[in-house]
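Example 3.2
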Amino acid sequence: MTYQTGESGSPQMPVCPRHPDRISYVRCQRCGRPACPECQRPAAVGVQCVDCVREAQASVRPTQTVLGGRYRSGRPVVTITIIALCVLVYLTQRFTPDVLQQLAFAPSSGDEEPWRFLTAAFLHAGWLHLAVNMYALWIVGSVLEPALGRWRFVAMFLLSALGGSTAVLLLADPAGLSWVTSVVGASGAVFGLFAAIFLVLRRFGRDATQILVLFAINFAIGFIYPGISWQAHLGGAVVGALLGLAYVYAPKERRTTLSVAGTASMAMLLLVLVALRYATV
């Protein structure tokens, strides 16, 4: 048995480096240092200390999905968070009606209060409106989020929402009622996700008929029933499709570069369109 030797030359008991008050005769198979029971981790042969286990885990490259997203087990955290935020905002609306007036988007207010372009996506006109959008978000998000990864999924949701509001602005008549009519709901963002998941299915040779039919039915409803903004649906779908092309069809070796470039370019394009529209009113 090897012991540490002090300045006086007398042997010292082996102690755990992380817990110097604990004597340990068990050593890490990787670094050879003593490890107390709290710092021991089972290994293929013997045990390893927590520091060596952490170092080994850091050196392992994260597993990726076929679309480059980081593989994560468990529930889609981002999707659940967005749903929770929408539900929380809706409950706030019920007790504080002014929230709807302060955060809803209308072309007439977007110039001076640009945050409305995004905040409107977290507002809903009623519980049925909320339930339908959240159900669709859950169905699509639980598939897209793991496939794309969290940051690309967040970017697609937010930019599709922004695209929906931008389309409402571009297609509104400054001299008409549409210029002062408020729109709310996550439908624009959800339509963007629908467009993206259609591309994912097509990319891997899967049958996308059901998604296409569902998309067409929901888009047509915007023309049939009053009070539904088909403009937001259209804008969100266009943005989702364009981002989907960058995310889904990018070559593996250039996937990250093209994803970042596509996201930045889309954000810049929408900002330019908004600025030009307000400049010409």
